[in-house]
Amino acid sequence: MTYDVTIIGTGPGGYVCAIRAAQLGLKVAVIEKRATHGGTCLNVGCIPSKALLHASELYAESQHSFAKMGIISVSHVDFPRLMNFKQEAIDGNTKGIDFLLKKNKVTVIRGLGKILGSGKVDVAGQIVESKNIIIATGSDVAKLKGVEIDEKRIVSSTGALELKDVPKTLTIIGAGVIGLELGSVYARLGSKVTVIEYLDRILPGMDLDAAKALQRLLEKQGLSFQLGHKVTGAKASDKNVSFTVEPAAGGTAETLTSDILLVAIGRNAYTDGLGCDEAGIKRDQRGRIEVGDHYNTSLSGIYAIGDVIKGPMLAHKAEDEGVALAELLAGQAGHVNYDVIPGVVYTSPEVASVGKTEEELKAAGVDYKAGKFLFLANGRAKANQTTDGFVKILADAKTDKVLGCHIVGAQAGELIHEVAVLMEFGGSAEDLARTCHAHPTLSEAVKEAAMAVASRSIHS
Asked: Within 13 Å of residue 109, how many CA atoms lie on the same side as its CB?
């Protein structure tokens, strides 16, 4: 059977692209190696981790915050039931994607897809012919030399989401988003968590002011950090893991032990085994597929989106690329604004960013103004006892156009989007400052930060 569009991979980018292409009247097939759709994000990433983050945050509140509000609660964690709660979140979402693909008459082909050339994909001996082929195979866990992942004692994020019990000690290699989120989960459940990071800061690439604030808050929650250090080797036993740590700049090494060692140093594009090199599809030094402005690869009729191409490895970035590419293939004007892609760290409090950081603006020589407002001065945050953090808005000093926003605080991942919408329309800090916000809400802190750009915040 011949298709207009065939997509390899049904993660956020792949399945969204398939649905949009089908909506536009194209005949669509998807190729998926897993038994369920949704890719890493839904099966062993974003969704299960958020279920555990939500549940563990509620547990931490019951232990530390309820009494202040007059709610007396004695609670404990039934870990197997907690993991079942996580699985329910996965199952509900995967079934939802199944329904949507069927609703939009998308053909599902199970198995590993290998590109034979323009217009042809081999799936376990079955040749699928398609006018357009899209690679949306996502990413895989980045490996660390000298540290072999067994998903029992030495785990990736996948194994960390499947632990049989709460470890007494958990050591995490990498202070990026994945490491901090999973570290937060197990710290709340009772683990002694240590994070080892090669760089001298956490959350590389995010606003330094926000990163420093989050580190202080996580340390108050019991996480400890060894910055400027690296793990050079690890060996697992039945009881624990012994590993070697030394300063990143060189120095004396020491051997430590931990019940569980989590490798969270990032992810790599999943492009091996697709037949890229044999078919003539160019990849860069990191294994990412090289694409043009319209996601076209070096081979005619072959396209790529999501984690397999350059840019942030974010589900929503892949989704937007999927929609844009489907519209381009249907003769429309698909587009993604890469300057306005939010990023969120789902710790407690959350960290959310969109646009440029102060470090990026300084490096580019941009003349800007910063407006900052603390949640400590926000009425709703005081009432909710969620006063940690701030909103910071960066605007061009001459035009007042908003160039970036960085939020540390409760519901930061929700609050960031009004700034994203403003930036999508080229709005100014004054536009935001003069937009009426309901009282009392956490969103008022965003308005106050916009007002602070012009040094006219009311409540600070």
From this structure: 25
Peptide bond into 440 cis (omega under 30): yes
- Output the pTM of the full model: 0.96
Closest to 264 (Cα-Cα) out of 218, 195, 201: 195
- Of the candidates 293, 282, 286, the residue with the CA atom closest to the CA atom of residue 270: 286
Q: Output the tens digit of pLDDT for each of the chain's 460 residues.
A: 799 999 999 999 999 999 999 999 999 999 999 999 999 999 999 999 999 999 999 999 998 888 888 888 767 899 999 999 999 999 999 999 999 999 999 999 999 999 999 999 999 999 999 999 999 999 999 999 999 999 999 999 999 999 999 999 999 999 999 999 999 999 999 999 999 999 999 999 999 999 999 999 999 999 999 999 999 999 999 999 999 999 999 999 999 999 999 999 999 999 999 999 999 999 999 999 999 999 999 999 999 999 999 999 999 999 999 999 999 999 999 999 999 999 999 999 999 999 999 999 999 999 999 999 999 999 999 999 999 999 999 999 999 999 999 999 999 999 999 999 999 999 999 999 999 999 999 999 999 999 999 999 999 9
98 forms beta bridges with none
Catalytic residues: 439
- Report the distance separating Cα 193 and Cα 293, nearest Å: 43
The pair phi, psi for residue 436, each rounded to 5°, is -70, 125
12-23 and 315-329 helices, crossing angle to 10°:
30
List the structure tokens of 7.
């997509």
The angle subtended at Cα 154 by Cα 153 and Cα 160, nearest 5°, is 85
Q: CA-CA distances (angstroms) from residue 345 to 44, 231, 278, 352, 427?
A: 17, 24, 38, 6, 25
